[in-house]
Structure formats: C-alpha cells, structure tokens
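Person: Please comment on this record:
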Amino acid sequence: MDQLDAISNQIMIVAGILMYIFGSIGNILNIWVFAIWSRSPNQSQKHYRHSQTSNSSLYLLASSIANLFVIIYPLLTRIMFDGYHYRVTLNNVLIFCKLRFYVLHTFDLISLICICMATFDRYLVSSRKVRLRKLSTRRQQTKLIILFLVVLIGLHSVPVMIFFNVSSTGKCTILSTNYLYYYLCTIQIVLHGIIPIIFLSIFGLLTFKQLKRIKTRSCSRHQHHHKRKKGISSDKQLSRMLLLMSLAIILSSIPYCIEQSLNVMFIRDDRLNSSYFFFFHVISHILFYTNPVTSFYIYYISTPNFRIQVKRIIFCQKRVHYVLYYQVARVSSTHSTSVNIYSKASIERASKPTIL
C-alpha cells in the first residue's frame, strides 16, 4: 500500500507541475485572444469581425480569467497537499483552507457557468427561429449578466470560507455535519457535476444539429451567398470550439462527481483513508483540473481563427493599415487649388489604403 501511495504522490507532483506551467501560459494567451475578440466592432480588427458574431467571446474571456485563478492558487496548493503531504496548521488555516476553497469553488463555478452561457448563446445565435435569435443579449447586457453571476457565486461561496477548518490530522475539512452534506451534495455533486453535464450535453447537441442544417442550406447557395458562408464558417468554428470544451468538461467531471458521491456514502467509513481511494482521489482531481488547463489547447487545435490570432500575438505580427487624408484649400481667385496629402500608418499588417 505504501508503494501505491508513493506512486500517487509522484503522479500528482509531475502531472500537477506540468499542468500548472502549461495551464498558466495557456490561460494568459486565452485572456489575450478573447480580450481582442470581445472588443466592440469599432475597436476590433476588421479582419476578425466575423469571430465576434455573438457574446460568446465575453463569456470565454470571463471563463479564462476564472481558470487562471483556479490554476494559480488551488492547483498549486493541491500539489502541496497530495504530492508533498503538506499539513495545515491553525496558523495558516486561513490561507490554505478557508481562502483556498473559497477561491476554488467561486472561480471554478464562474468558469463552468460562463461556458454554459456561451454554449447557450451559440444555440440561440445558430437557431433558425427569429424569436430565439432575438433572445441573444447585447454586449452591455452580457457584461451585466457576467457581473451578476460573479457577485451571486461569490456570496454563495462565503459559507465555504466560514465552515472550512483544519482537522486533527492537518487536513482541511468541514466541521459542521449539516453544512458538510450540503457542500458535498449541492456544491460538489449538483453544481460542479450534474447540472453542467446535463446542460452542456443538451445544448451542445442542439447547437451541433442546428449547425449541420445551416451547413446543408449554405452549401446549396454558396456561390450566391459567399460572404454569408464565411460568417457561417466562423460561427461553426466558434461552436465547434465550445462543443469540444463541453465534451472535455463532461468527461472530466464524471470521475470527480463519483468521488464526491463516495465521500457522501462513506463519510464515516475508514475505507476513504485507503491507498486505493487516495489513488482514485489523485486521478479524479487531476482530471478535474484538466478543464482550466486544457482549454487553450482545445481552442487552438479546433479553431483556425484562434490559431491565427495566437500566432500574431506570439510573433508580434501586426497589420499595417494606411489612412490617407486629403485637405483641399482654395488659394487664389483664379480657382486654383492646392492639395495637401497626409498619410498615417496605424500599426497593423499591410492592407488596402482607406481614403477618407
């Protein structure tokens, strides 16, 4: 059994450190890309305007910021707990227990809900019914929705910070039995497991079916509606990106949900302290953290527009956009005029001059 514990420790250390490094880099790039895509049309690059056909970029931006918080703090402390057997004391219980679990459940739930909202928004935008398409909110409304979700989830997680404390064995635990059952059943199993799995499965499948119908109709009229086809292609890329992310969330949430269910079933059983359960605990938590870690790589593999934007960021490639200003002034009574031409190059890559 000691050998299995040692293997579990090494898996958490090696996998956790790699996930910490690549997850931090990936989410920083996610934030950069979605910050560009979520700008208003007047501020964003014209070349990528087709990537901003809905509010999905705003939701994905909020999700990426939340994922970065989950990786920087809760994942690092999880490596310390399960990899190096770090023991919490009364002196650091606020940092390693109360604040840690508050940050974990607040930002992970924000990330999950934003992914669900982005998937739902794609379903509305891709719908054939005008009534459903009109339900897609405007930018300002989307920002208010995100702000409301952050405040609501932050307030809901306050009891987590209150009831978490250190046990006699140096582990973080909830001392209140009543809140412990609420925490395991409602927060862990329902909010982090059942609801996201069901929601993403339903609306992900509906969005996929609607996009297949759109593709069938657009292929028969692609020559007459060439520009519209480009927009549909961009919508499909963004929807495919969300569908793959939804699939990753569903697959990674199942083991974590099973572990939390076992915690409820055998809450007073010594079998939870066995080496086999600890091994399953390590694997389920590694899979749990794959959601915030692998999001960038899922987006990068599945979406050509995302890859283009990332390459522009990494290699500092910018378009050069020339704007010519013509100023005409009358200089004499003989109706002769002089033309002063001013040219301005904004820092973008070469494109056709625009004459104002």
About this structure: DSSP finds ten helices and five strands in the chain. The longest strand covers residues 321-330.
